[in-house]
Amino acid sequence: MFELNADTITAIKKGNRKVILDLYHYTFQVLMGNAVRYTNDSESQMQIVNNSFMKIISAIDQFQLGTAYFSWAKQIVRREIIDDFRKNKRYKELFQYNDDYQNNALTSDPEIDQVFDAELLQQMLDQLPPATKMVFNLYAIDGYSTKEIMDEFLISYETVKWHIKEARKRLKAQIEITQTKQISFERR
Length: 188
What we know:
Blueprint: H1 6-13, H2 17-38, H3 42-58, H4 69-87, H5 91-94, H6 118-126, H7 130-141, H8 146-153, H9 157-187
């Protein structure tokens, strides 16, 4: 069992490869879990995981012992995911929104607030357009506020709201299709 303490942090700072590899194995699932939620491509996922881990190693002296390591690592991987998304030269184009958007409220849809298998939910999220998936993940799963998302991507409040509404609409449609399939399967 790996333990992150003052000795392991010192060993990491000194470049002890065994300790660094142990930390990588200890952290991998958390980093990959976040990368999978935001990208569909396994190569991009591994790149995000590895870049995030390198940032963890280089910033290990900033980690405060006694605090939640995985929360700190998740913040680093989320920043890497956002930075990776911004590197896409067309990311601004992905944030175009529907000018006819009229509903200013971000209300929850009770039909979407159902419990689903995590794998099925991930498959549904993977079908969203990249910008919509990014905004929805940050808002609904990682708890970012609309203001934080606006600041991260330099987009308007209406654009953030449109992406959240669009994700909910598409997820609701996918849920309805899934439920219809389940009902017809049960009737057989």
